[in-house]
């Protein structure tokens, strides 16, 4: 399938009642688009990083009753999985697309990574544009501009609270015209990932501590 952008029908997927019905729509409407753009982005990141990045598409396999409120693809340096590693994400809620560099709670080395970020907090602040947003919980829609967030406290919480997370990147409203322009959208994602690569690389030394 050739990626031609996201449209209103993709976002309406999350209005469908029932787990099986919504999952069928995710699989038919959204996942083919994830596969189309995911490998392009994985190849681009692999070239820039000098090591292979692998595409993972959320399966929502643990769900038995409640349908997912969002869905995503992930790009990680591990072929078997992504949740225990720093990774890049692209996904949809019913009202926006998110583009993240993600450190979620399953990450075994998140305490060490948080310490590294705290030690380099000024570098991080200067590297992240003011129009980028930060989320502390990938399950929630909420995200705050880095200009409005206490980054130091957020990173301390990420370090100290077992379920705390740290995701940084961009939100695009479902009505944003760029979402319907496949070339412009992929270029925006690549630009976003390029901006976040220094943070990703900064976290890799601590990732290497994982057995």
Descriptive notes:
There is one protein chain. The chain has 211 residues and is α+β, with helices and mostly antiparallel strands. It has a single domain, classed as 2-Layer Sandwich (BirA Bifunctional Protein, domain 2). It is built from 6 helices and 7 strands. It has helices at residues 8-12, 19-49, 110-119, 121-127, 151-160, 182-207; strands at 54-57, 71-76, 87-92, 96-103, 133-135, 144-145, 166-173. A 7-stranded antiparallel sheet has the order 1-2-3-4-7-5-6. A hairpin with a 3-residue loop joins strand 3 (87-92) and strand 4. The radius of gyration is 17 Å and the shape is globular. The termini are far apart.
Reconstruct the topology from this structure.
Layout: H1 8-12, H2 19-49, E1 54-57, E2 71-76, E3 87-92, E4 96-103, H3 110-119, H4 121-127, E5 133-135, E6 144-145, H5 151-160, E7 166-173, H6 182-207
Antiparallel strand pairs: 1-2, 2-3, 3-4, 4-7, 5-6, 5-7
**Count of discrete alpha- or pi-helical segments spanning 4 or more residues:** 6
CATH architecture: 2-Layer Sandwich
Structural class: alpha+beta
Radius of gyration: 17 Å
Main beta sheet, described? 7 strands, antiparallel
- The tally of domains stands at 1
Number of strands: 7
Beta strand % = 15-25%
Helix amount: 40-55%
